[in-house]
Design brief:
Layout: E1 7-10, H1 16-26, H2 32-42, H3 48-57, E2 63-65, H4 70-81, E3 84-88, H5 96-105, H6 109-115, E4 122-126, E5 139-145, E6 150-154, E7 157-158
Parallel strand pairs: 3-6
Antiparallel strand pairs: 1-4, 1-5, 2-4, 3-5, 6-7
Helix pairs in contact: 1-2, 2-5
Length: 169
């Protein structure tokens, strides 16, 4: 249901679950920030109420939860809708805890937040004005475009990075 020219949105911060998993796997000290990331990994909060609000708005083109990372899940929307996408990495919402731990540990926050998954935020498309029309916070992160490519940008520069997302097999 996504159409060319729609804005791509998410409902909340990305990467917390992947950061929590990394913290567990690497055995880093459990500070307050690390504990919060681990909790987001172990106990994700599905955005059921946000999903209902978005659905009832009648303005959403396509929507799904982010279980395998936006790099993978956005490709599902693109393929099903026959559109391409441009995602502005510097517009991805990140929690302060995630940003801090990534900086301290030298982790690539874009890799974790696009490919880590398990955040269970909602990924959806709709009109540019949608963020001002709802009673929930939504974050615009890009646009749907002609074609079938997924293009990553940062500070208006196209990146050579090809974030993939989680692969089950």
């Amino acid at each position: 249901g996504a159409k060319v020219g729609e804005t791509i949105y998410v409902t909340g911060p990305l990467g917390d679950s992947a950061g929590g998993l990394q913290a567990i796997l690497k055995g880093i000290e459990r500070t307050e920030e690390v504990t919060r990331l681990i909790e987001r990994h172990k106990r994700p909060l599905p955005r059921i109420d946000a999903g209902r609000i978005l659905m009832e708005s009648g303005k959403v083109g396509a929507m799904m939860d982010i279980s395998d990372g936006i790099a993978s899940d956005l490709r599902h929307i693109m393929k099903a809708s026959g559109v391409g996408a441009v995602v502005e990495l510097d517009r991805l919402p990140h929690s302060p805890e995630f940003v801090k731990i990534c900086a301290e540990q030298g982790w690539d926050r874009y890799e974790l937040s696009t490919s880590g998954g398990e955040d269970f935020e909602l990924l959806f498309t709709g009109p540019e004005s949608l963020e001002n029309e709802l009673d929930i916070m939504v974050y615009p992160i890009g646009k749907t475009v002609q074609g079938k490519d997924l293009i990553w940008t940062e500070n208006d520069r196209i990146l050579n990075s090809d974030y993939i997302g989680y692969k089950h097999f």
